[in-house]
């Protein structure tokens, strides 16, 4: 079976936009309003002849209730079944309390984690990505899921982790 990559992060950081970029087509639903992806949705992907499965998840939040709790539980289930995780942070916002809580949850999973600093649409924003070293997940990888900036490098990194 193809190895599985889970894409996780808090709401609105660009997870679904990144999933579309990774699979090379617009299939995951992108919205300006948070909370569109409720479940975990698998997509077939292929990079340099290697097949893998990308799982889009809803926005993860700590101590969530009701519907938000169900979404977070689905994201954690996606992580549990994944071979590697891409953790997406919005570099234009920086590390939030929710991001820090997600890092703790990710550590408990013991899965390999690739830290992605999204929304780095131009070189001037690279500095914002640098601040994400503070999350303690190693090197932040700056990309623009929207424009495709550095997405090839990220795919190489993902395949090396799977
Ligand atoms: P999700 O909730 O994490 O799945 O986030 P979405 O993929 O639905 O995107 C949320 C919003 O962020 C949408 O308005 C996207 O167009 C926007 N977005 C996603 N990636 C980027 C990016 O690389 N740069 C910019 N400027 N906006 C982005
Ligand atoms: Mg989404």
TrEMBL record:
Keywords annotated in UniProt: GTP-binding, Nucleotide-binding, Repeat, Ribosome biogenesis
Stretches assigned to the EngA-type G domain: 3-162
Domain of life: Bacteria
GO molecular function per UniProt: GTP binding; ribosome binding
GO biological process: ribosome biogenesis
UniProt: GTP 1 binding residues: 9-16, 56-60, 118-121
Family of this protein: Belongs to the TRAFAC class TrmE-Era-EngA-EngB-Septin-like GTPase superfamily. EngA (Der) GTPase family.
Function: GTPase that plays an essential role in the late steps of ribosome biogenesis.
Assembly, per entry: Associates with the 50S ribosomal subunit.
Protein name in the entry: GTPase Der
Species for this entry: Spirilliplanes yamanashiensis
Residues of the full protein shown: 32 to 193 of 476
């Amino acid at each position: 079976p193809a190895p599985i990559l889970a894409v996780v992060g808090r709401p609105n950081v660009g997870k679904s936009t990144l999933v579309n970029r990774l699979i090379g087509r617009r299939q995951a639903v992108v919205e300006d309003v948070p909370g569109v992806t409720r479940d975990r949705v698998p997509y077939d992907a292929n990079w340099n002849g290697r097949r893998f499965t990308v799982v889009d998840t809803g926005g993860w939040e700590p101590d969530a209730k009701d519907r938000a709790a169900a979404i977070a539980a689905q994201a954690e289930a996606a992580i549990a079944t994944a071979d590697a995780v891409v953790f997406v942070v919005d570099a234009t916002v920086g590390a939030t309390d929710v991001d820090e809580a997600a890092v703790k949850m990710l550590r408990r999973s013991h899965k390999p984690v690739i830290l992605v600093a999204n929304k780095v649409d131009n070189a001037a924003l690279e500095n914002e990505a640098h601040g994400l070293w503070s999350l303690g997940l190693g090197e932040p990888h700056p990309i623009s899921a929207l424009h495709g900036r550095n997405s090839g490098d990220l795919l190489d990194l993902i395949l090396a982790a799977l």
